[in-house]
Amino acid sequence: MPGIDECLSGAMAIPGARSASLVDWSSGLALGSLGQSPTGEHETAAAETTDLVRAAVEGQTFTGAEDRRSPLQDIILTASRSYHLICFIDTVFDSRLVLHLWLDRDEGNLAGARYRLQSLAEELVLG
How far apart are CA 56 and CA 72, in angstroms? Predict the structure, then answer.
């Protein structure tokens, strides 16, 4: 079964990846991180990722009442020189995990990275 280290290594193998983190958004802590941090510190990036995720999940605009267990699949944030992909990980236990990939806009492929990140999230849970 792939673990956190293997999942993050797989995310860093995505072309254009600058960093990858597994974040528990109930606590705001990074369970693991590889690469550079967008803020210089992985802990700060995890806390800011948590703020963004909570805002999206708690807003009724972005979540359907019929799907409260796993209301969102992912969040894509675009900046002038990078992308941030945040993939929700649906687990059998009551955890709140996301996989956050910081991707260079010139070197990466957003669609390919999204597909691969979702695959890595599923592998992490299913083994």
Answer: 8
